[in-house]
Amino acid sequence: MEKVEKVTEALKKATIGGDEKKAKKEKKAAPAADASAGPLEMNPPPSFIQERIDLFDRLYKEQQEEIASRPREDITITMPDGTIKVGKSYETTPAEIAKGISNSLFKRTVVARIDGETLWDLERPLEKSCKLELLDFNDDQGKFVFWHSSAHILGEACERRFGCSLCIGPPVDNGFYYEMALPDGAAVQSTDWAPLESIVSKVVKEKQPFQRLEMSKEDLLKMFAYNKYKQHIIKDKIEDGTKTTVYRNGPLIDLCRGPHVPDTGRIEAFAIMKNSSSYFLGDANNDSLQRIYGVSFPDKKQMAAHKKFLEEAAKRDHRLIGKQQELFYFEECSPGSAMWLPHGMRIHNAIMDYIKEEYWARGYDEVMTPNMFNVSLWEQSGHLAHYKEDMFLLDVDKEQFGLKPMNCPAHAMMFRHRERSHKELPLRLADFGVLHRNEASGALSGLTRVRRFQQDDAHIFCREDQIKEEVADLFDFMRKFYGILGLTFKLKLSTRPEKFLGEIETWDRAESRLKEALDEFAASDKDGGVSWELNPGDGAFYGPKIDIAVLDCLNRPWQCATIQLDFQQPQNFSLEYQTGEAVQKGETKAAVEEPAPPAPEAEAEKDKDGKEKKKPLLIKKALSPGCARPVMIHRAMAGSIERFTAILAEHFAGKWPFWMSPRQVIVIPVGMGFLDYAKEVAALLKKEKFYADVDSSGNTLQKKIRNGQLAQYNFVFVVGDDEMRNRKVNIRYRDDTSTQARDVPFDLDEAIQKLRQLKSDRGMYNPFPHVAEAKKEEEVKA
């Protein structure tokens, strides 16, 4: 069933639409009739529904009889608090355990987790002694199960209304969707939403139980004979002679690994959010499908809170802010590649400048590597097998080249281009080079999902005993960087997966050092706001990693920073350094081996198509005497600068802090007679490298001030006769409403000095607090 999940993941990226115009026109779907003009459901229902039910009922009865024949044994169920519950195998269910504790616990429990890993239906009997956790909607996995079950309810509603062929219906970060093909290529309309929600309400009231059935590939092909999309998935992803599962609720039966909530009555609040088009398997050459997105909650109060959250998020949408503030835009002739406008580049450069300052202080060396490499580089690194579909490939001089989607292989080559000594470690290589990834056109979304981007990418080559110290410095970097932006974060340590490369002892040592670094980092937090959790078995195949989720002001998690240990790339590229230990007598330092041409008499090796195999970029070699392999640490703080800019735009709602603001000061003369002084003030500010503008329009003073506030200038400097004669400015600070009134002039030179300090501090404070205090004093006197 894992293979079915892989195709599900691929299909999640296949939606059409978003912000980018499609590079390739899809086949136009036939318009559907207005929903208000037709019946709520198909009557009679499609014949395949009853045929599917008949096969399910027969096989489900056989399965239940087989389970009933299994021997019952006493089992122990260990709860999180250590208490032991006694049960019988193939009889006792997690639901019974939950009810035995309290009925309210059962009602709020979504799904069970067995032995810390396997999710389990509440009504499915336990098969052996185990550790049992009861997860509710607030747990991330519980939420995904809840939304997955909601997707099945939506799928049932769509079959009952349209008689459609369902494709997939997975949970996603903010709800779920179901993808389908409507008869005659019809399209879903927004007027279909209310009828679908009406059917969903019926399904919820019926409290249809979710039933799990294991089926053979042959029976699956019979069950879904009417659906060419399910047929394709079954034939392509399920091996002959194997079984997988389907789940039934009411008339719906769908290919699914599960698990699910006990019954449809758990979904008390349900809403359709949008619909769009997509391509089957995410391939524009395949059929165009319809996709309906929804969200659901255990109660209506949470749904109301979610809708309020969406309203606030819509106001902060970085695409809207980007347009209003003229930061960036996209051209149809280069989808997924941002056109950075001057004001957008000011923000981009401010982020980069800060990171470069930190690099200088922390001992990083900035490098630059080519944008295009022969694909043999990624064959050597092992990335090609995983990234080929997401790369832009070109034929050059009868060879295949690709635009780089990541920097790590190039940095490995840079490390090995000459002999290295232990005295050079740790070696920290930073690269802001342009990267390209061939994202599906439908997945493109403003700056958060692009094809061309830059990262604050760096790789640290170090000894094993240096891992803890390097990771501790990365934590310090992260805390400082996110701290000045008002961002908080969560940490997870992802450990050795089932399929891994390298020695277990090496993994254990690395994980131990990461745990120590995490513990010390958490202990060093004075406010106690930093903690971390273990994410067992979710590390990369090449090494453990620390996943960092950044939380913005709306408490939305964003994946930005990453810290990954890599033992594999140093082996792939035969990286080594001289340890400084004496080489034993009789041993010699081996030369770096280069690929050798085949001997004249030997026939060149050929691939499965009979073509001569291309020579490898490098031939892997054993360690030279007196040498050791470095550990490679992949790390980023901001991640994609494009994506990070989008996150900050929404976090600040377009009210950029002074040090990165594209509009820092606007100077407003109270009349045209003071325009020259206004220009002089702006010139002095620009000399200090502040972004300053002058409003020389004929608008009224109040209109000019209002325009400056709407444009999100951090400071409005108003100048008139008194200010000009005394070289002063009247200051209004955007983020302090108590400074919005006039008549408290401030010395110009001192104002510039305070702005200089504010920028240097990268602060988010009012550098003119006594201006506000003076105004308050005036109000008291009045």
From TrEMBL:
> What keyword terms does UniProt attach to this protein?
Aminoacyl-tRNA synthetase, ATP-binding, Cytoplasm, Ligase, Nucleotide-binding, Protein biosynthesis
What the record says about family reads:
Belongs to the class-II aminoacyl-tRNA synthetase family.
**What CDD domains does its record include?**
TGS_ThrRS, ThrRS_anticodon, ThrRS_core
The record's annotation in PANTHER family points to: THREONINE--TRNA LIGASE, THREONINE-TRNA LIGASE
List, alphabetically, the InterPro entries matched.
aa-tRNA-synt_IIb, aa-tRNA-synth_II, aa-tRNA-synth_II/BPL/LPL, Anticodon-bd, Anticodon-bd_dom_sf, Beta-grasp_dom_sf, TGS, TGS-like
Give all residue intervals belonging to the Aminoacyl-transfer RNA synthetases class-II family profile domain.
Answer: 342-657
List residues of the TGS domain: 73-136
Residues in coiled coil: none
Tell me where in or outside the cell this protein is found.
Cytoplasm
Q: Where is the composition biased (Basic and acidic residues)?
A: 1-23, 603-612
Region: Disordered; residue ranges are 1-46, 584-615
In Swiss-Prot or TrEMBL terms, this protein is called threonine--tRNA ligase
Q: Which organism is it from?
A: Podospora comata
Give the HAMAP family listed for this entry: Thr_tRNA_synth (MF_00184)
Recorded catalytic reaction(s): these are: tRNA(Thr) + L-threonine + ATP = L-threonyl-tRNA(Thr) + AMP + diphosphate + H(+)
EC number(s) from the headed UniProt entry: 6.1.1.3
